[in-house]
Design brief:
about 325 residues; six-stranded antiparallel β-sheet; 10 helices; D-amino Acid Aminotransferase, Chain A, domain 1; globular
């Protein structure tokens, strides 16, 4: 099992924050593990809505497992459906869709074997990633490679550890941005979050690696990037970046919320790295709540708003306070 296996699971503090916000809004909340007993649990516990934060139990489509179960049972839930979650977890498939839609994304190649030849059209530096992982799992400083020898070494390392195809893409030198989107029929692009790695010289990590995500804020390790929300961008550039995030949200069929990670190249081109339709909701260290706070949406209001968005898709005109009980479906580490 890879050492970063549990990185994408939510912490007990996040579960308590979400549950507390729901209870404060007057809901009865039941916590349920997203394991093999989940279908039986829902037969025995009728609920009005599921607040889904489950990552699934394993496999190439794991994030779609809980939504697929809920869809088959006819149980309403927050967030995107099984097709979107399955697609978004596959970086290469997502990039194929982005390319079809004319949305800029770094040039890439999928390695299905460690010995696949490199496409000569790709230009160094390149970055090597497991194709079907989230939370920067498998991505280290060394994954940014400058030559063929280093590329081959990192491709073999990722294959050996994660036992899946490897995505190799051109590394975009530019600003690290992430953009949240809220809504369904009417979409709201949130204030852009800029992650500034200029102060991370000690670590030598100037992008979102696994160490950066896992230990973000640790000044001793040099893993303490500065956050700017709204991003320090000209108004026209910010608007263009937000439009790209809205296009990605629509292209993948996201519901209720999403977060799109973008690298803004020096010439002003926003390159989409990936989209997360199941973004972290920790009030302490997740990016999505930083953006909603900047938009004037307090954390408890965000949680109840997501309930309202989901409910509106299932019950015309119903209001969040009419729900009782709710289940929070989660994956425990």
């Amino acid at each position: 099992m890879p050492f970063d296996f549990y990185s994408e699971f939510d912490s007990p503090a996040t579960l308590e924050a979400i549950s507390g916000a729901l209870r404060a809004a007057g809901h009865e909340v039941l916590l349920v593990e997203a394991d093999e007993s989940l279908p039986r649990w829902f037969f025995e516990h009728p609920v009005d809505l599921v607040f889904n934060i489950a990552e699934g139990t394993g496999g190439r489509h794991r994030e779609s497992q809980v939504p697929a179960i809920l869809e088959s049972l006819g149980v309403p839930f927050t967030g995107s459906g099984s097709t979107t979650l399955s697609l978004a977890l596959d970086k290469a498939r997502t990039k194929q869709l982005l390319a079809y839609e004319g949305i800029p994304t770094p040039a890439w190649q999928v390695f299905r074997s460690p010995d696949d030849p490199l496409d000569p059209r790709l230009q160094f530096p390149l970055i090597v990633k497991p194709n079907r992982e989230g939370s920067a799992k498998g991505i280290m400083r060394e994954n940014v490679v400058q030559d063929a020898s280093a590329l081959r070494r990192q491709v073999r390392r990722v294959f050996g550890r994660y036992r899946q195809e490897v995505l190799v893409e051109e590394f975009i030198d530019g600003l690290e941005l992430t953009v949240g989107v809220l809504g369904n029929d009417v979409l709201q692009a949130l204030p852009i979050l800029e992650i500034d790695f200029a102060g991370c010289e000690r670590s030598g990590e100037f992008f979102y690696s696994w160490r950066m995500k896992e230990y973000e804020g640790n000044k001793e390790l040099g893993l303490d990037p500065a956050h700017h929300c709204p991003a320090r961008l000209p108004a026209a550039t910010a608007a263009a970046v937000q439009r790209v995030a809205l296009r990605v949200h629509r292209a993948l069929g996201c519901r209720d919320l999403s977060r799109t990670d973008i690298r803004l190249r020096r010439d002003g081109t926003p390159f989409v790295l990936e989209i997360n339709p199941l973004p972290g909701l920790s009030p302490q260290d997740s990016n999505f709540p930083i953006m909603t706070t900047a938009a004037g949406i307090a954390y408890p209001a965000l949680i109840t708003h997501l309930v309202g968005l989901a409910l509106a898709r299932y019950r015309q005109g119903a209001q969040p306070h009419e729900l009782s009980p709710l289940a929070v479906s989660r994956s425990a580490p």
